[in-house]
Amino acid sequence: MRSPRITFNTIVEILDLQAFLPKNILQSSKRMSLTFCFDVRSRFASGIMFLLALSACVSPSPASVMDSTASPIDVVSDAVEPEDASHSEVATADSLEDSALDSMGEPTVFEIGLRYEVSRKSAPSLEGELIAIYDHSLWWDVAEPRRTLAFFDATRFADFPEDRSLVFIDEDDIVSATPMSPAVPTFRDWLEAQALGFALPLEGPVYVMAGHERHHLAERGYGDFAYDLGHAEPDGTRWRGDGRDLEDYLSWDLPVLSPISGVIVEMVRDAPDEPPGGEPDLGLPENMVGLWLGGSYHAYLLHFRQGSILAELTVGSRVTLGDPLGDIGNSGTSLEPHLHLVLLYWDTERSRYWSVPVDFLNVRAGPSSETATIFERIAPRGGTFLWPP
């Protein structure tokens, strides 16, 4: 099933990327077009989910074989230079108006981080901290004027698949939402206490090509809180020469370390690396490692170099923080070498994943090692350099 075609050149112009892409990519964009398509597969509890095979600029993640305990994966990533932005702890909007009505019939103004008592049309009421709002109107392929809200309550955490610590609610299903006392613990506090934060997955200063912004917000809920990571020069340049060869890119072949401990539930290791800036083939597989972290939480690392994932790693292997996994490559639909890193939550009600907020823990952020500021936790925006503590 395919949706209308859209030219890559149009996307470059809309996102104002001309200044950030190598010349060969811009030249090839004149003959490139991207077709949004879906691959339908059955993998979890005989359920069917649509696998998004596109991100507008770099790297869709088609599903691959998973073991019997794993859920299907549907994530995308882009290595596109965002606007210049300094690091910040929170990369989401502080508040958004929602069309849900409160008991007086007035529109509810939702604020990220507040706890609400939510009355629903289709299910019993619940309480939870609002941790994310997914704006469907930003989605490239199936844009529509609605939103999905994610509410967190630590008391609902359980083993997979009973975990309901996060509940995702369509805005038009909300009858009323009453603000309550602040959440204790907050979602970010709870993640940190559960060791569900990321360490740096690369040696040296890590450059955030893209964070919780721009193209990631268009990735159908699978990339809202993802990171595209690699190396760059101090001015943000990510390649040498004209960028025609994979070896021109500073991120190519960089060793990847596990940013968190977990059990491998999905792996692809033999997909070929694609030339940078080539016309994208949306059916290409990409090399990846998917980790189950506990409950319904998973971490995924995408775009490894072909054959670089360690031979001793297989589905079922347990990895610990800092273990070597493989090397950065350009497998899948990717314009340049980079590492896509995302925390995903398996939504049992919808049989799909959602990208959820996650911090890097105990890192320094800033343009140089000498001026970098230490953060106990940070959700950096694109253009940020991260340094070891």
Overall description:
With 389 residues, this protein is mainly beta. It folds into 2 domains: 2-87 and 197-387, Distorted Sandwich (Glucose Permease (Domain IIA)), CATH 2.70.70.10; 103-193, SH3 type barrels. It is 5% helix and 36% strand. It is built from 3 helices and 25 strands. Strands 13, 14, 16, 17, 18, 19, 21, 22, 23, 24 and 25 form an 11-stranded antiparallel beta sheet that branches. Strands 11-10-9-8-12 form a 5-stranded antiparallel beta sheet, with no helix packed on it. It starts with a strand and ends with a strand. Residues 1-20 and 24-106 have low confidence and may be disordered.
Number of strands: 25
Q: Specify the CATH homologous superfamily of the largest domain.
A: Glucose Permease (Domain IIA)
Report the structural category: mainly beta
Instruction: Summarize model confidence as the mean pLDDT.
Output: 78
Annotation field: number of helices: 3
Q: Helicity, in percent? A: under 10%
Morphology call: globular
The CATH topology of the largest domain turns out to be Glucose Permease (Domain IIA)
Distance between the termini: 48 Å
How many domains would you count in the coordinates?
2
Order of helices and strands: EHHEEEEEEEEEEEHEEEEEEEEEEEEE
* CATH class division of the largest domain: Mainly Beta
Characterize the biggest β-sheet: 11 strands, antiparallel
Oligomer: single chain
Annotated CATH architecture of the largest domain: Distorted Sandwich
- Please state roughly what percent of the residues sit in beta strands, choosing from under 5%, 5-15%, 15-25%, 25-35%, 35-45% or over 45%: 35-45%
What would you report as the Rg, rounded to the nearest angstrom?
Answer: 20 Å
Ranges where pLDDT stays below 50 over 5 or more residues in a row are 1-20, 24-106
